[in-house]
Amino acid sequence: MFGISKNALWAFGVHILTASGAFFAFLALVAAAEFRFPEMFLWMGVALLVDGIDGPLARKLEVKKWWPYWSGETLDAVIDYFTYVMLPAFALYQSGLLGKYASFASAAIIVITSAIYYADTRMKSEDYGFVGFPVTWNMVVFTLFIISPNPIFSMAIILIAAGLTFVPVIFVHPVRVKTWRIPTLAIFAAWSICGIIAIWYDLDAPLIVDLIIIASSLYLFCVGFVLQLMGSLK
Q1: Hey, is 131 helix, strand or coil?
Q2: pTM of full prediction above 0.90
Q3: What's the Cα-to-Cα distance from 213 to each of 33, 82, 195, 233, rounded to whole Å?
Q4: CA distance readout (Å), 160 to 11, 137, 154, 165, 188
Q5: pLDDT of residue 234
């Protein structure tokens, strides 16, 4: 049809899939604006799922070959910044989780440091990891909502993560980093399943669910640095 092959149409469908993440992020924003935070995290989770599958699909269907003038990387970066940065920052501000002024300040720290990170052309390592904290604030803020720690402790976590944005410490991509991929994917799956359970319980899940989320978050946060120390990642 219109001189476009079926393979090219399937390939462009990946761009549409990626772009759908923007709509899911919009739904999350509406939910956050109306203080429906469990629903907000649900839509953010759907956007995260889309972000996890569009890359492998793009490589499988050779999107760059069929549509060389449409940048999937740029499209992905635009949506990622909104989903992983702006939404969590807005959720902190809207919820007042850290107190009125600290929540506002933490949101400012998140959006500014993340914007600088996205402009860094050295953000990817040779092993497809991330150099510096990869501004996955959606996971950090979700964990803070789950455990509801002391505001000072929460602010400390945000400052540490923001500081690590500019430190050459490796963070793994659960799908693309091959070293320890199976356990990392399994732990990420556990984090995701427990996240869904926590949302089902309106972010007030049983203690065991909270503990699994905390433990899996620590693993995902630290495993890249451990592999870096072992010389397994560059």
Answers
A1: strand
A2: no
A3: 25, 23, 7, 25
A4: 40, 12, 10, 9, 22
A5: 67
